[in-house]
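To whoever is on call:

I kicked off a structure prediction for a single chain this morning and the downstream step that reads the tokens threw a length-mismatch warning. I double-checked the sequence; it's 305 residues and nothing unusual in it as far as I can see. Pasting both halves so you can look.
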Amino acid sequence: MIMDKTEPMNHFKFPFRTFFFIILLSMFAAIGCTSNPFGFDETIASTKIKGKIVLEDNIRPDSIYVWLETFDIGDYTDSQGNFSLKIPPPNVQGIDNGLSGKFMIYFYLPNYFLDSVAVWFANGKLADDQETIDSKGKLTQTVVLEKILNIKNSVVPSVITIGYADTVKVYSELESLAGELTVKCLIYNVPFGASTKTYKSGLILQSVTSNKMYRLRHEDAFKYPYTLPFPGKVTWTYNLLVDSTLIEPGTYRIVPFIIIPQAKAPAKLIENITIDFPVYEFETNCFSRHIKCTDAFLQILPKEE
């Protein structure tokens, strides 16, 4: 027969543990009410984070997406690479007294390496005395983005007239600057005797004077992974059958559809960029438009009377 063994109560051990536990609770309560557990109690007055981004190849640094995680606020850089993130008031940040701790600001451009810096908050406000932000809320250093993929586009002919119904050839030369790189493009297959021929597809015509855009792709096109050699260059050729009677006269920037992987980009960042359509789908507002490249322009002239 097994019986439970009951120890006599230690009248000295119990009161001491209780007293110690009460002291610990008091300490945590004091921290929660009067200070920030991450060590930053002082904050600065600025309600904006500002900064400047440049590209290593000195291309105009506009359209770079800047995003502050958790707060989920973003901005695009202007033509000089400047950005400004407005911090929401602490009482609308989702928790009492606002968010505290370390948060990352990400800098995204499709064919450049993703970069980021850490900033600290205390009770929903920018913490004082941190390395990356000065007392006015400005980044202490200019962010420099390094290029992953070099793209040079060209088009022949570059000038057509309304009524033109022939093939326009678009050439896209790609050079990986970061080792072997697998990207995705749109292709379609055409039967050719006993085999098939594969062609590239997926072009966006973006007006240089308005928000007008046209999406041009073969109806049977599908996304396909393509590994770019390193070192070396490859040239993709697009046979664009243009019915210029369906496109308004004007000058258009031609943008090939290409997906450049950014494995470290947070899913929410990508979602924000592609908010109006499924991620990585071919639409007129897809972020292929933000790729930095040597542009090709197609000019469509009115038909002469």
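Update from on-call: the warning came from a stale cache, not from the record. Cleared it. Sanity check on the structure: The first helix runs from residue 13 to 34.
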